[in-house]
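Two entries, shown back to back:
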Amino acid sequence: MDTMRDRFIATTSRLLDEDPRVAVVLADISADGFSATRRAHPDRVVNVGIREQLLVGAGAGMALTGMRPVVHTFASFLVERPFEQVKLDFGHQGVGGVLVSAGASYDWPAGGFTHMAPGDVALLDTLEGWTVHVPGHPDEAEELLRHAVADGDERVYVRLSLQSNARAREVRGDGGFVTVREGRGGTVVAVGPMLDDVLDAVAGLDVTVLYAATVRPFDGAALRAAGHADVVLVEPYLAGTSTAAANDALADLPHRVLGLGVGQRELRRYGDMTEHLAAHGLDAASLRERIGAFLRQR
């Protein structure tokens, strides 16, 4: 199976052929994958080198001219390092674009903490009007990317990861959680690539599982419709990122929310992605223990 990043390169290359409004801005990352496309569209595939503030600023400048920019690099260099440009060049100027990241929270631990971005979605939560997609499979990544590029002049963030579920789920670019299974003892919301581990973790537990490949806007209506006072959020980025949104959705009801995700503590041994998942309590065995304890089911 190809990776989400492989699918991003192939899909965006086709979009460049199909739509003269689309442009791609890179900062060296994935530049090799776009080399053939760059020869075909030299004026719409731009590599600014390792200059991430310029990366975002150039994308916003293209949007000002009426183009639909797709801006891409690792998450830590796309959201965290040039955050001021994301805030001002896109937000303050009131233009749209599609930011597509790779690397996620710890896809490449050998790159060190500079290449880890568990706080990217929380940072975007401080800004107005960003749609955030977190696909759990390459097929979902393609569907959500195509929707994002076609989404008028909206501001959209697509968070890609090496972590992937075994099969794709039906996703809609306009958001909405999908009910995967129904139960009576609580609701578990699994975000993107966390779904398979969540389903393994709750096997035999009497719970509803909702799947979220689009997390902003947060689908509070689906959470309410599930009808449970106890809610567990399992997110592949900073723990608790969506806890406030879940509380807002259930504000007029007695409820409890447990937010599971990446901890704030920096892990200073590289390891691999699987070891980071276990260290943050996000592998299936750890999730089983934490979800079961919160919902009082064993």
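entry 2 starts here
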Amino acid sequence: MNILQPIGHYVLKFFKSVGRLVLFTFTTLSHCVRPPFYPRAILRQMVEIGYFSLPVVGLTTIFAGMVLALQSYTGFSRFSAEGAIANVVVLSITRELGPVLAGLMVTGRIGASMAAELGTMRVTEQVDALTTLSTNPFKYLVVPRIIAGVTMLPLLVLVGDIIGVLGGYLVAVYQLGFNASNYIQSTWEFMENMDVISGLVKAAVFGFIITLMGCYHGYSSKGGAQGVGKATTDAVVSASILVLCFNYLLTMMFFDK
């Protein structure tokens, strides 16, 4: 009995948290399609998520492409298959590394920022003040972040894909001695539209997850500064795990035979 009691407590607590998250998600989605909207708030979040995250995503993807080219050369040279390096780099970057790395980088930068900002507003009763001023907090605080995340992540990933493939090109041509024209031709001929589209769809889903987790944990925080810190940690951890889980599910949906 003493063993089952804490297990039951944690199970009930888990389902209670899931229920709150589901209600928060449906409430957010319903406000996303109903006016009024706040274009300035949406534009401000787009700049924050898209423009200011670009250096982090660019640096991550270019080094990922460079390392991928080096490691592929090391492995493929054992089978005299060095010519497949361009194919492996473009396939890995567009399908997996670009969306996942961008998702995780934006989770660390934006998810934590959103949770801390909304959490601070919640514990200092600024969210309640918005309600007093007849402004719906969901429409003013949550919806602009969700819309910006869903629209900006695919653009970030598209730029990251180009930079990542460029990183592989630089290593292959200037370090490994590949012919530049042949490398570009091999990359272009091997890449398919579905490789890029699947990555962009993943990015949109990741953008929704990251902003939803940041807003949910920040909006639900309580207990002063300690509660805000816990909300920030929970937002980053939960969003990172969900990004990796949904990456597998979406990959299976697009490419499972």
